[in-house]
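Subject: Sulfur carrier protein FdhD

B.,
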Amino acid sequence: MTIGTTSLEVTKFSNSRLQNPQTDIIAIEKPVALVYNGISHVVMMATPKDLDYFAIGFSLTENIIESVNDIYGIDIVERAEGIEVNIELSSRRFAQLKEKRRNLTGRTGCGICGTEQIEQVCQSISPLQLNDKIKLSNFSDSLAYLTNVQSVGKQTGCTHAAVWLDLNGQFLAGFEDIGRHVALDKLLGYRAKQQQLSNQEQKGVILVSSRASYEMVQKTAICGIEILLAVSAATSMAIDNAKQNNLTLIGFFRGEKGVIYSDFGRIIE
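Prediction pasted inline below.
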């Protein structure tokens, strides 16, 4: 077993016939509370691994912080009922957070559940620059990276993945979680931390194992990433958001084929 899994005795059946009980590997799902300066802000159901990167990524994509430097410390505490991720914010960012706090408990499927007003769904983002270009042929083998980073998924079939590729299609990093939004937040948190350590922009492409929903596009654009590849379909709102923010969005990505919803001249073949 790996981090994020547990074992359980189950009974399987085949051709309607019961088999002997056997041990199966199960993905762990736990409530994870993100607590800012002592005040709980949100509870998400997540796989309990890479939670420091999740805290950074969520904080960035929710505009709670502007950069990793706004976080002074992260402390992960196991509780009987779940996990607390205690995040120490700068006083300026914490004051702004208190002004716009909203109840987001249970954001597992739809990332905007709990939003109080429709206007809060659509965050204002500066349109992305047109700096990155890719050759699709360089990404023909990229799907394998999604499998490679899913140590929990390989054993349980229960996770999504998000991977970070350079502009030539080479693997840089990847994370998994039971929630597609959380997997993406973990990846974005990792990227932000690497930028802080190197003091250089980390250019590249995101590939996700899920559909491209509105919030997946929104999170990607907020972090300044210009290209998003999704294994499954894109929703109408995701496509509209991609076009508004100058993000190149490709769905049904299968390495050598896919559907281009928005291009903006970044695909050079």
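The chain is about 25% helix and 30% strand.

T.
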